[in-house]
Amino acid sequence: MLFLLLPLLAALFPGGDSDEPVSFHVIQTSSFHNHSWVHMGSGWLGELQTHSWNSSSDTFIYLYPWSRGNFSNREELMDLESFFWENFIGIQEVYTDYFMFEDPFDLQMATGCELHSGKGFLCFLQLAIQGSDFMSFQNETWSPSPEGGIKAQEFCKLFNLDQGFVQGYAHTLLSDTFPHFTLALLDAGKAHLQRQVKPEAWLSSGPSPGPGHLLLVCHVSGFYPKPVWVMWMRGEQEQQGTQRGDILPNADGTWYLRATLDVAAGEVAGLACRVKHSSLGGQDLVLHWGAPPSALGWILSAVTVALALLTGLGFWFRKHW
Ligand SMILES: *[C@@H]1O[C@H](CO)[C@@H](O)[C@H](O)[C@H]1NC(C)=O
Ligand SMILES: *[C@@H]1O[C@H](CO)[C@@H](O)[C@H](O)[C@H]1NC(C)=O
Ligand SMILES: *[C@@H]1O[C@H](CO)[C@@H](O)[C@H](O)[C@H]1NC(C)=O
Ligand SMILES: *[C@@H]1O[C@H](CO)[C@@H](O)[C@H](O)[C@H]1NC(C)=O
Fold first, then answer.
1. What is the pTM of this model?
2. For residue 184, how far is its CA from the centre of ligand 3 (angstroms)?
3. Which residues lie below 8 Å from residue 216, measured CB to CB, with a gap of 6+?
4. How many angstroms separate the CA atoms of 165 and 268, rounded?
């Protein structure tokens, strides 16, 4: 059944040229501090958060109308919720009492699937305790991580006794529920995931890198999807000194990037920042350093100069009359 869905995926995401595999994963963090638990959870389709966790009702919060995929009336979603409740939240006393973990105590769980081209889905379920790997679930068995020591070995023995979990629940989750849910989310959210949002770009100067040098900064913001090309140019020549920062998320789900160039003060003339992005339809954005921002920019500067002159004249008149 899953193999029938793979061509659909190829049709949804033609080219598949992105270097990151398509993935859906859920992260859960439970902290026991000062005799009480705090639980946080989130669901991620690639780098996009699609779910959060309501700890008063122990249910998912669907951040988009399509965050249910097409599971809206199906048992899988309930299964997923009760899976988290029963296995990670409901048994928390096991961690603190049975193993006498100290207070404060932090438990992190990550589970999900990555779709690798040619290899199908690779799914995982991992637990970390106090920030180190503790145990992971593979091939219908819990395996202790070396960092987990003797406690992890005991814990795995205990968990592996629960055949209903290891051969039933967890196996179904990883081999069936997650792969189907990932495909369903990609399908339901395709309008959102395939949207094209044009970048805005502007220039500024950064802190001087040294005497007689300028740091030119090209800011590119508000674009989606993430792949973007930004380069400082002199005419058609790419400036190899261009330094790209990391691509950072904006709060609205779009992306931000800055590209800087360290240049001798005498050599700034003729430099421009060039931006290529899929939303621009081949019409690259080009911003010239030192060029007037726009007609409006000219008008504003003219008005500013006129105001400055008038103010100056005003002072002169007040002094001399
Ligand atoms: C711990 O909990 C107790 C009782 O609930 C409270 O009085 C105390 O202020 C808490 N301490 C800290 C550090 O939060
Ligand atoms: C969380 O659950 C509670 C109790 O069911 C509900 O009243 C509240 O609206 C939920 N919060 C969100 C953000 O969904
Ligand atoms: C999974 O377990 C089965 C039987 O327990 C074994 O035959 C198989 O080689 C294992 N696969 C991996 C990838 O460890
Ligand atoms: C859910 O979506 C998948 C992939 O788009 C589709 O193959 C499947 O039939 C759908 N299931 C339901 C119950 O609609």
1. 0.72
2. 29
3. 203, 205, 206, 232, 260, 261, 263, 268, 271, 273, 289
4. 65
> What Å distances lie between residue 92 and 36, 67, 118, 158, 165, CA to CA?
11, 28, 39, 15, 16
Q: Whose CA is nearest to atom 4 of ligand 4?
A: 184
pLDDT of residue 8: 44
* E strands present in the chain: 22-33, 36-45, 48-54, 59-62, 105-116, 120-129, 132-138, 141-144, 200-206, 213-223, 229-234, 237-238, 243-244, 248-249, 255-264, 271-276, 285-288
What ligand has the least distance to the C-alpha of 57? 2
Q: Which residues have C-beta within 8 Å of that of residue 201, sequence separation ≥ 6?
A: 218, 219, 220, 221, 273, 275, 285, 287
β-sheet bridge partners, residue 61:
52
Residue type, position 10, single letter = A
Both tokens assigned to 118: 């040619």
User: From the CA of 38, which ligand is nearest?
Assistant: 1
Q: How many CB atoms lie within 10 A of CB 39?
A: 18
Residue with tokens 């921002």: 293
Q: Are 115 and 182 in contact (CB under 8 A)?
A: yes
Q: What is the block-wise mean pLDDT of the chain (321 residues), using blocks of 10 residues?
A: 44 46 86 82 91 84 88 66 65 61 81 86 90 89 92 87 77 85 89 94 93 95 96 95 95 94 93 96 93 55 59 63 57
